[in-house]
Amino acid sequence: EAQVTQNPRYLITVTGKKLTVTCSQNMNHEYMSWYRQDPGLGLRQIYYSMNVEVTDKGDVPEGYKVSRKEKRNFPLILESPSPNQTSLYFCASSLNGNQETQYFGPGTRLLVL
Amino acid sequence: KNEVEQSPQNLTAQEGEFITINCSYSVGISALHWLQQHPGGGIVSLFMLSSGKKKHGRLIATINIQEKHSSLHITASHPRDSAVYICAVYRGAQKLVFGQGTRLTINP
After folding, report:
1. Which residues of chain B does A97 touch, with a Cβ-Cβ cutoff of 8 Å?
2. Residues near A39 by Cβ (< 8 Å), separated by ≥ 6?
3. Distance (Å, rounded) from C-alpha B57 to C-alpha B75?
4. Which terminal residue of chain A, N or C, has fewer Cβ atoms less than 10 Å from its own Cβ?
5. Which H helix or E strand runs over B67?
6. H or E element, residue B59
7. pLDDT for residue A104
8. Residues A42-63: tens digit of each pLDDT
9. Among B86, B72, B93, which residue's Cα sits nearest to residue B21?
């Protein structure tokens, strides 16, 4: 089954404790992206990747890192999480990003205390 | 002012009614995306549009590039259509900018 998976689905952590949210897709998509969703602000793009070793900032990249060492995986790294990073995070992928349909993961709900 | 504005923010209707959700944008775009977010949080792509009109089942999406406006219509609405509908535009080839969403509730 074609899908985008994220882990963990739920995470409670404390300020400053490094964490990684994994994202994996099995559709051989070149484009992958991370978004956060907050009440009143909607979805906002954090980072995206056009292919292996090619990443670029979205609208809200501060406090986040990404890497794209393999085509299928695009982890989101919070080196020193802060409470303002409490949010619902979505990973998505598409064939090549050029106005293609995006397929979303199930979301990761993060609470930073 | 947001680059992508949706209206209404909330919409409640009775089963069977014709539903229209509007999306206006202020930037030049290459394509527009309609998404559906279920109460459980999952997001599904409904349509990708760069011109004209698309139909899938009871859903119809239209876009007017000159007026920078798109609409999503639902015919013969059903309680299972209750969800948040999100408009998103491609600013350039890779960057996606989202509207705030429209929360639709269809009562039996």
Report:
1. 93-94
2. none
3. 9
4. N
5. none
6. strand B59-64
7. 95
8. 999 999 999 999 999 999 999 9
9. B72
